[in-house]
């Protein structure tokens, strides 16, 4: 096969735009790149400045270039007999067809392949498919991104990498892929078919070693039952008679060998000692450790030492999956090399993160796809991934937008688990993770799972007496969510439609069909039961739609959002002041409750009877799934009932929805106002030691706020609580400058007036130009971000600075952050989720703008309820709650700037309350000692330039 890899640069991305550069790389039959064709094209129209900014192609470059006729005359012979390949090929293909048409050639009728598809399928764990970033990942030369010849060559090299990857795949995986695309009349189906035939001729059916073959799948993993504890073969405990100091000496020696630049940090040594002391004395510990202290090793080393020496498991919990992944990929491999004896650390996540092989096999074999085009791609990705993954954890997969729905149908869950009677049990990813956690010394989980375990009566996590909580400033929040209830509109709809969507789709229709095939006498009876359940399920769905519309109406009536504003609406419901239409709503809920009760009774009885009579695996797996869905319905029914009763004084009830999606985005919440008593009962009274660490635990250098929120007062009074604030390893006076424009206009609420927005946009633009982009702007309200986005974009377009806005540009937080890092000059606008957990070290980030102090909206139901409670206790809610929460958030935001000892940067705070109010000092005192200056707006840009130049000169 000969491949022609095509790329065009154009004056825009509308069909009316013109080509300004063409690149074509030819891959010959022997898979070598035999030539790269390149040419500028004179478009006959001006090139827009943003295209020049993106591609570097100027009017000067194209003014003497050949016209389209001449370029097509040279390109057409090269395309003869070739398969056309491109990265996001539809774009280039459309321009090619239009160019052929304009210049009098016949349209291209050959086959077309897209490297995006290939990357998704053969590299399912790549975190991005953007050409420049993939080239970096594969070490492919790509000197001039967005220039056609460089893009075409990079795409050709990436395509060859994909072909190499196909070579490595087991025959069985290729057969599966070919079979999957078989029903599609597509060039991808043709390609897989050709590859399969070629491989079959070469290998004559030999499957390579290094894989496990089971039930027609090629897997990377073998039976998990063979995994043994790390030191099973050792007769004596390796730490017998070894003190922590001696152990650390051995580790440090190894670290120096492994990392020549390794240096001991005072803060990390303090942390090691404090954590060890807490373990040794059975105490709890609050320890604030800023960026750069190396806090992961600060708790992992004492945890490993303690668990191995005392033969006592240590549990470590993080808030974000990101941090869990960082421990898995960065810290644990390093520790495995420097700790002088074998130990085992297991990562154990919530069950829904693991693939259920039984469900996946069923879905693929039955081709049970709701949106075939997208789901076939996802299935293909996962077939290849099975030959690569050792964990079956969805975080390894880049599933794309719709992939999440697919995952939900194949994720592991306790209600539909066949346990030991499942043919996949010995290969099961969830049971593997559970077994690994059982034999591990240290188990790394997350806050969510800690609470799910409590609710499941401690059936999920292995028993533990020592707990380390990283990112501990989130503990209270997560506790509230888990110890309370929350239900989304779609949760109920998904459960209902997975049971029954129409007479052909859903688990009940599948069972109906299976019973029909069986034709036994009992089968007729059960088919009648199923037929009777359909109308009831439809009725529940209709009533749920009505109820959620009425609930949504309660929100929009009471919302301060402008009509048509897609913002997030929130409305609190008060037990003693029920809305006037509440009776109509409870009547609907009651009807749902009764109908569901009837469905559940019939369904559960039928499932039990079929179980007794049938022993066929196909039916058993279906019955288990139906049984699981019935359990889900029962839980949703009880959650809805608890919410609609509105009767618990210690619970906050509220509704949330989004203006765009209306009642389809509805969520109902019922959360305890105060979780400190429960945290005390579950953790501080029960566990020997709980170590809590985070970069932000203190307010004004005191732990008092956190102690009260988490229920640690008693531990503190009984001398069972230690606290420590670690010194920062960075020199903030040299590395960070905080500027406050003292004449900046002030604003109330979440929307800025015209003058405020105009002043803000001008100042942000001037600052961005002075720092050449590389700027992160943190907002407290999405509405204000939207007000700033367009005018700021307009101001910066001619400077070649891109503006990226959360919610304005598509993509997750990680994708937007990556785009920001990948572009030379850009400004990233973010709201709440960007205040923490975003890590942009080095040059990519030079300035951080904080538009307003991050107070939580005082009308958020939970904040409101907590404030009311404080008022009843004669305390000042603003000083006891709002200020401490905002200070912790502010410190998190500030922490985005300096991520290493080489980073330098500027923070601008556009909120004069920090200077003028009596509470402003708490914000400033809580920062780790940067240089602070206030001045007028006009003095700011000269000061920024001067400060940045000092750096370059020194």
TrEMBL record:
Its cofactor is [4Fe-4S] cluster. It comes from the Bacteria. Keywords: ATP-binding, Exonuclease, Helicase, Hydrolase, Nuclease, Nucleotide-binding. Its EC number is 3.1.-.-. GO terms for molecular function: helicase activity. Residues 254-522 form the Helicase ATP-binding domain. HAMAP family: DinG_exonucl. 3'-5' exonuclease. This is 3'-5' exonuclease DinG. It comes from Paenibacillus motobuensis. The gene is dinG.
């Amino acid at each position: 096969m000969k491949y022609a890899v095509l790329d065009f640069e154009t004056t825009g991305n509308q069909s009316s735009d013109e080509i300004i550069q063409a690149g074509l790389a030819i891959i010959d039959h022997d898979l070598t790149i035999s030539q790269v064709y390149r040419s500028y094209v004179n478009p006959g129209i001006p090139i827009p400045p943003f295209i020049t900014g993106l591609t570097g192609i100027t009017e000067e470059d194209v003014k003497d270039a050949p016209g389209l006729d001449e370029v097509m005359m040279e390109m057409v012979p090269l395309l003869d007999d070739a398969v056309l390949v491109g990265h996001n090929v539809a774009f280039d293909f459309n321009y090619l067809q239009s160019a052929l048409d304009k210049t009098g050639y016949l349209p291209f009728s050959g086959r077309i392949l897209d490297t995006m598809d290939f990357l998704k399928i053969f590299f399912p764990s790549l975190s991005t498919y953007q050409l420049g970033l993939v080239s970096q990942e594969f070490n492919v030369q790509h000197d001039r991104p967005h220039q056609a010849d460089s893009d075409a060559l990079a795409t050709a090299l990436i395509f060859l990498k994909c072909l190499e990857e196909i070579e490595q795949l087991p025959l069985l995986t290729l057969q599966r892929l070919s079979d999957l695309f078989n029903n599609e009349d597509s060039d991808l189906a043709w390609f897989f078919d050709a590859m399969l035939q070629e491989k079959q001729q070469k290998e004559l059916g030999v499957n390579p070693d290094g894989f496990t073959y089971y039930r027609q799948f090629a897997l990377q993993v073998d039976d998990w039952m063979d995994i043994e504890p790390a030191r099973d073969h050792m007769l004596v405990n390796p730490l017998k008679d070894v003190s922590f100091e001696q152990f650390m000496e051995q580790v440090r020696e190894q670290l120096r060998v492994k990392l020549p630049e390794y240096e001991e940090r005072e803060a990390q040594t303090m942390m090691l000692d404090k954590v060890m002391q807490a373990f040794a004395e059975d105490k709890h510990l609050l320890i604030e450790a800023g960026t750069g202290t190396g806090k992961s090793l600060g708790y992992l080393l004492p945890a490993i030492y303690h668990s191995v020496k005392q033969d006592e498991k240590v549990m470590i919990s993080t808030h974000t999956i990101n941090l869990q992944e960082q421990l898995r990929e960065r810290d644990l491999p390093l520790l495995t090399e420097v700790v002088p004896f074998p130990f085992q650390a297991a990562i154990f996540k919530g069950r829904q993160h693991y693939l259920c092989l039984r469900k996946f096999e069923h879905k693929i074999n039955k081709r049970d796809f709701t949106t075939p085009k997208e789901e076939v791609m996802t299935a293909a990705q996962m077939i290849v991934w099975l030959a690569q993954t050792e964990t079956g954890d969805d975080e390894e997969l880049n599933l794309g937008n719709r992939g999440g729905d697919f995952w939900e149908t194949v994720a592991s869950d306790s209600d539909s688990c066949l346990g030991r009677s499942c043919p996949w049990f010995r290969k099961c990813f969830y049971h593997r993770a559970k077994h690994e956690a059982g034999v591990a010394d240290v188990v790394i989980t997350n806050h969510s799972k800690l609470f799910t375990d409590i609710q499941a009566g401690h059936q999920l996590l292995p028993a533990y007496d020592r707990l380390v909580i990283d990112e501990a400033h989130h503990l209270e929040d997560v506790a509230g969510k888990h110890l309370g209830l929350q239900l989304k509109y779609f949760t109920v709809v998904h459960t209902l439609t997975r049971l029954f969507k129409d007479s052909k789709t859903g688990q009940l229709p599948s069972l109906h069909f299976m019973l029909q095939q069986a034709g036994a006498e009992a089968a007729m009876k059960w088919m009648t039961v199923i037929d009777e359940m359909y109308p009831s399920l439809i009725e529940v769905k209709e009533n749920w739609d009505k109820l959620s519309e009425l609930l949504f109406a309660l929100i929009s009536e009471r919302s301060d959002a402008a009509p048509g504003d897609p913002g997030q609406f929130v409305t609190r419901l008060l037990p003693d002041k029920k809305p006037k239409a509440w009776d109509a709503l409870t009547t609907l809920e009651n009807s749902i409750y009764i109908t569901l009760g009837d469905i559940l009774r019939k369904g559960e009885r039928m499932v039990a009877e079929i179980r007794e009579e049938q022993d066929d695996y196909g039916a058993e797996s279906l019955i288990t799934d139906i049984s699981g869905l019935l359990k889900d319905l029962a839980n949703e029914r009880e959650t809805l009932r608890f919410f609609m009763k509105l009767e618990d004084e210690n619970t906050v009830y509220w509704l949330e929805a989004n203006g765009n999606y209306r009642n389809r985005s509805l969520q109902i919440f019922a959360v305890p106002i105060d979780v400190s008593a429960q945290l005390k009962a579950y953790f501080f009274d029960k566990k020997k030691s709980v170590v809590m660490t985070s970069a932000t635990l203190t307010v004004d250098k005191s732990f008092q706020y956190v102690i009260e929120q988490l229920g640690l007062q008693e531990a503190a009074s009984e001398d069972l609580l230690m606290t420590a604030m670690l010194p920062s390893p960075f020199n903030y006076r040299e590395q960070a400058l905080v500027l406050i424009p003292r004449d900046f206009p002030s604003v109330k609420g979440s929307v800025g007036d015209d003058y405020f927005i105009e002043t803000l946009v001008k100042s942000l633009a001037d600052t961005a130009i002075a720092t050449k982009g590389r700027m992160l702007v943190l907002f407290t309200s999405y509405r204000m971000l939207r007000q700033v986005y367009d005018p700021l974009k307009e101001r910066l377009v001619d400077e070649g600075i891109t503006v990226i806005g959360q919610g304005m540009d598509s993509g997750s937080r990680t994708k937007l952050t990556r785009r920001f890092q990948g572009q030379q000059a850009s400004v990233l606008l973010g709201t709440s989720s960007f205040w923490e957990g975003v890590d942009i070290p080095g040059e990519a980030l030079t300035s951080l703008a904080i538009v307003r102090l991050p107070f939580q909206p005082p009308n958020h139901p939970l904040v409101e309820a907590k404030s009311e409670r404080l008022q009843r206790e004669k305390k000042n809610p603003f000083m006891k709650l709002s200020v401490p929460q905002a200070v912790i958030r502010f410190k998190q935001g500030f922490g985005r700037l300096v991520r290493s000892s080489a980073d330098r940067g500027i923070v601008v705070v556009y909120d004069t309350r920090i200077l003028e109010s009596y509470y402003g000092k708490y914000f400033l005192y809580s920062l780790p000692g940067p240089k602070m200056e206030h001045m007028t707006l006009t003095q700011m840009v000269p000061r920024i330039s001067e400060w940045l130049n000092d750096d370059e000169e020194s």
